[in-house]
Every structure is written in structure tokens, then in C-alpha cells.
């Protein structure tokens, strides 16, 4: 695992966007596809802003295929709290990606279709050659995607129960805890770890404790982000505040 700390959230986000943009530009030059695994939440918003800047300066997303980590369940795509709406608002509506290359789990499937759908989501990722770059945030439970405590290392895309802390963190967006869905569809830990390159972005003081525990503590299903430890293809990007406790402990 590589660790890269930046003085501000803006600089950290800029770095991640530059890495992604350089990868896309490289692939575009030889007319190859780039497959991105994308995250939601407040953390990657600045990364997406920077990617839109790159697009405005000429970077094309025509060869980009995306797979989002997760979606609430149940959740209609056009609801304002959906990750579909989030992705269109923060990125897709501002770049030249084609609709057929966008994949976000469907939060409106009838219960008996979810299992088969999740299998197909995995298959689609494989069919396009796997995820080149996976962007991750971290939840206060140590979740990545919506892989909450208890998620096994070999988990795949599936329907999960959300942790109460995760629901509480989302309460503001939903106008109250009682409106926050209790479930979600998320890529699994194995799905995430098979990406060729992973950027875990953690920003702000409120992430300092969980970031430290996940990066320096025991590797355990109780804190799924801890599975990223020891993986050479993982780069952890922190701003100074999120890295506050880690610097004191000296990561090696
Ligand atoms: C949600 C998302 C996660 C994200 C997390 C952190 O739970 N499903 O992918 O990492 O929120 O959110 P934020 O970046 O707002 O702290």
C-alpha cells in the first residue's frame, strides 16, 4: 500500500484527478477503453470537478466505461438522493461519456431479481476486461462501497443491510433518518480488490480515526477498508487532517 498525504483536500483531489485523466489520455491515444470504478459521497466531488475541467480542456470520455460501487435499495434512479442523480449531477452530465457505458446498480429491481442482476453486474465488469482504476472513499464504519462491518473478503456484488452509523451519516441528505433506505446494492470486497489500481481517498478530520484504524490496525472483516492493507496496487490519498493520527504513528 502506498500512502500519499497532501496539505489540503483540494491538492489531494487534484492529484487523483490528474492520475485518472493521464490514464484516460494514454488509453485514448491508442484508441483503447478505460474502465473506471466510481464512488459517491462528499469525498470524490472535487475529483469529479477536476475531471470536468480536464474534459473542458479537451479530454474525451468517449472511450470511458464506468461502474459505480453502489446504490441505495430501494431507490428510484430519478430520486434526488439516488447515486444515479449524484453521478449525473457531479460528472456524467458535464462530459462526453455515452449513456450505454455508464453502469450504476439498479435500486428499483424486485427482490427476486436482485441476485441474478448482481451476477450480471460482475459479468459485465469481466466482459470489458476488469476495472482499470477504482476510486474509493471510506465510511465511518470503515466501509468501502457499502461493504459494512462483517463483509467477507471474497464478497461480490450483492444486496446488503446498511449499518446504523452509515444511515445516520446519510440522514441529512434524506431529510431525516427515517427516510434513509435500510439496504443497498454494493460491489463486493473481491470485486473492488480485483481492480488493477485503487485510490482510497480520505479527507477531513472526521475521517482521521477510522482511517488510522483501517490502515494501521488489525485486518478484519469488522473494518472492511483494512482489507486494503498489504495490497501493492492500493494508493491511499489523504489530506493533512485525515492523516493527522497516522503521521504521529509513522506508517511503514
Ligand atoms: C457512502 C458511500 C461510500 C462513501 C461513504 C463516505 O456510504 N456509499 O462509497 O465512501 O459514503 O461518504 P463521504 O465521502 O460523504 O464521507
Textual characterization of the structure:
The chain is an alpha/beta fold and 252 residues long. The chain is 33% helix and 18% strand. It has eight helices and ten strands. The chain has helices at 9-29, 45-56, 83-90, 114-127, 164-170, 189-193, 208-216, 244-249; strands spanning 2-6, 34-38, 64-68, 70-73, 102-103, 133-136, 158-161, 183-186, 197-202, 234-239. The chain has a seven-stranded parallel sheet, with helices on one face. It has a three-stranded antiparallel sheet with strand order 4-8-7. Helix 1 (9-29) packs across helix 2. The longest helix has 21 residues, at 9-29. The protein is globular. It starts with a strand and ends with a helix. The structure holds 2-amino-2-deoxy-6-O-phosphono-alpha-D-glucopyranose. 2-amino-2-deoxy-6-O-phosphono-alpha-D-glucopyranose is lined by residues 39-43, 69-70, 137-139, 145-146, 166.
